[in-house]
Specification:
There is one protein chain. This protein is α+β, with helices and mostly antiparallel strands. 41% of the residues lie in helices and 18% in strands. The protein has nine helices and eight strands. The strands form two sheets. It has a five-stranded antiparallel sheet with strand order 1-7-2-5-8, covered by helices on one side. The chain has a three-stranded antiparallel sheet with strand order 4-3-6, with no helix packed on it. A hairpin with a 2-residue loop joins strand 3 and strand 4. The N and C termini lie far apart (70 Å). The N terminus is likely disordered.
Amino acid sequence: MEENNTFCFTEISELNPKFLFTWKGTRDKLTFEEPFHSHDYVEMAFVLSGEGKYRFDEGIFPVKEGDLLIFNPGVKHQCIVNPEVEVATTEFFVGAYDIKIDGLPANTIPVPGGGHIMHTSGELRQKLFKLCSSMETEKAGRMPGRYFMLQSYLMQMILLILRDQCAPLEKAKGYAFESVNKKYVVEQMLSYFEDHYSEKISLDQIAENMYLSPFYISKIFKSETGDTPIRHLINIRLEKAKELLENGYEGNIQEVATSVGYDDAYHFSKLFKKHFGISPSQARKKEV
């Protein structure tokens, strides 16, 4: 199976899979060979040790320690017992459903090259070994909240699989915020708005750069200034636009809007008139 990255995501809007089961087993020459079958849920099998073979519609493929097999719903598969191998195959199985990943059909986990076998190595392999061990221990412990612990391990496994198929996102350019002191954070935001009002500004990105949540920075900004970050930014942009118009800027209204961070001249004009009581064209003719 050719291995090419065929899927990449920038964000996951929802991931709350239902955990079904785990099972660990070793297949040797005495093991009953299962039939060629498929499921209506997702099943993953991580090869902990040994080597073996799996049959799919596309043919028979070898598997070995560190391989992760992903059987999406409807994928017919069969583990073929091979008495000739020196070390029998020990696998750790995980079953799940209600998996939602943006851009993919429900209950689908992508595999490099579009096949069914993901050959892991290095850090990813070690993390998968550790997750399998943690799930086995949790299953055996029968402690309160066991289902949710197993579900959390399942989510980690899915995310590791997805991340391995994507290049890291570029580090955001721009402001670097280094403190969670409320006054300092607000001062940095005020300074950022003044310096970058003509650019696309995302509250989510500012919050990410601060390692804080958008809700939290909005809350402390309002507590310190009495205004929301977005309303404050709008006020800065409109004041800058008014200043341009009153100082004889000769560009059209679209150019004025673009210069203060708005793509839509109509939306800009509505905001301007609501704020100042006159249109941008009227502001150009006389001082307010």
